[in-house]
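Input C-alpha cells:
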C-alpha cells in the first residue's frame, strides 16, 4: 500500500500497523491540494513501484456553512474544490495512462451521502464531491473496455475527526471508521460503479420525487426519522463558526425513537445483493 497525506508521523503509525498485520506499506507525504506536489509524489511512486493498481481518492475537507454566511468567503469554495476535486483529478490523470496500458486498474472516489441528499449549508463541500462523482460517472464507460473500474462511494456520516466540530452529528446515525473501511473493501472486491447505503439511496429517491426542500432543516437530509421530516424542529442556535451548538433539542434524532435505525444505515450492501449494482 502507498499511504499519502500531509502528516508523515500519522502515515508512519499506519504503516507500522499494516506491517504488524502482515502487510506492506510505504509512506509518501504530500499536500494533495498542491498540484506540483502531487506531480512530484506520483512521479516518485511510479519510479519506485512502476504502477498504481488501485487509486483511492480519500483525502478531503468539509465545510458546513450557509452560502449567506459565505459571501466574503470565496476561498471556502476554492479550498473544497482544490482538494476534493482538483487534487483527485490531478492524481487520476497521472495514474490513468498506466492503467490503460496494463488494461487493468481501479479508481475509487470517497464521495458523500451529501451528493445524494443535498443537505443545506454543505454547498461548497457537496459541490466539490458532486463534481468528482460526476466526472467519474462519465469516465466509467470510457475506460470500461480498458479493464478499468471507477467507483463512487457515497459514504454516510463516519465517526472521524472530520465530524467532531459539528455538534448536530451527535444525534445523527453514524458508522465507525472500520465500517467505512469495509465499504472501501466492498468497492475493491466488487468493482461496482457505486457503493451506497440504503439511507443514501432513500435520499436520492426523495430528491427525485420532491427536490425542493421546504426549509433549511439544519443541514440534514429530509429523510424519515430525521428532523425536518413531517415538520419536526431540527434547527438550533448558530454557534461559533456557524455550527449548531447543541442542536435543536427534542426534534433531533435518537436511535431509539427514529423511523430510521442505525442498523438500517449499516445494512449495506443490501442482503443478497453483493456484487449487484446498487
Ligand atoms: N467523516 C464523515 O462523516 C464523512 C462522510 C462522507 C464522506 N467523507 C469523506 O471521507 C473522506 C475521509 O474523511 P475523514 O472523515 O477521514 O476526514 P478527516 O478525519 O478530516 O481526515 C482527512 C484525511 O485527509 C487527509 N488530508 C486532509 N487534507 C489533506 C491534504 N491537503 N493533502 C493530503 N491529505 C490531506 C488528512 O491527513 P493530513 O491532515 O495528515 O493531511 C486525513 O488523513 C473525505 O474525503 C471526506 O470528505 C467523510
Amino acid at each position: 500500500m502507498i499511504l499519502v497525506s500531509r502528516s508523515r508521523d500519522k502515515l508512519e503509525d499506519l504503516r507500522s500497523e499494516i506491517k504488524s498485520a502482515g502487510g506492506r506499506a510505504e509512506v509518501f507525504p504530500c499536500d494533495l491540494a498542491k498540484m506540483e506536489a502531487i506531480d512530484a509524489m506520483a512521479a516518485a511512486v511510479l519510479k519506485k513501484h512502476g504502477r498504481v493498481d488501485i487509486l483511492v481518492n480519500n483525502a478531503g475537507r468539509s465545510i458546513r456553512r450557509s452560502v449567506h454566511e459565505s459571501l466574503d468567503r470565496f476561498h471556502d469554495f476554492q479550498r473544497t474544490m482544490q482538494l476534493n476535486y482538483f487534487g483527485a483529478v490531478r492524481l487520476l490523470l497521472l495514474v490513468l495512462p498506466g492503467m490503460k496500458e496494463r488494461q487493468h486498474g481501479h479508481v475509487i472516489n470517497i464521495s458523500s451521502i451529501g451528493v445524494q441528499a443535498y443537505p443545506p449549508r454543505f454547498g461548497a463541500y457537496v459541490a466539490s464531491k458532486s463534481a468528482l462523482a460526476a466526472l467519474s460517472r462519465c469516465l466509467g464507460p470510457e475506460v470500461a473496455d480498458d479493464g478499468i473500474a471507477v467507483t463512487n462511494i457515497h459514504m454516510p456520516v463516519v465517526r472521524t475527526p472530520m465530524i467532531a466540530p459539528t455538534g448536530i452529528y451527535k444525534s445523527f446515525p453514524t458508522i465507525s471508521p472500520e465500517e467505512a473501511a469495509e465499504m472501501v473493501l466492498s468497492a475493491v472486491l466488487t468493482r461496482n460503479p457505486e457503493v451506497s447505503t440504503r439511507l443514501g439511496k432513500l435520499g436520492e429517491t426523495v430528491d427525485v420525487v420532491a427536490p425542493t426542500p421546504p426549509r433549511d432543516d439544519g443541514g440534514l437530509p429530509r429523510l424519515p426519522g430525521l428532523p425536518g421530516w413531517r415538520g419536526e424542529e431540527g434547527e438550533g442556535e448558530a454557534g461559533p463558526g456557524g455550527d449548531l451548538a447543541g442542536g435543536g433539542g427534542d426534534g433531533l434524532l435518537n436511535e431509539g425513537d427514529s423511523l430510521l435505525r442505525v442498523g438500517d444505515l449499516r445494512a449495506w450492501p443490501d442482503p443478497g445483493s453483493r456484487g449487484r449494482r446498487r
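Residues 5-7, 10, 31-33, 58-62, 83, 110, 112, 155, 157-158, 160-163 surround NAP (CB under 6 Å). The CA atoms of residues 141 and 224 lie 34 Å apart.
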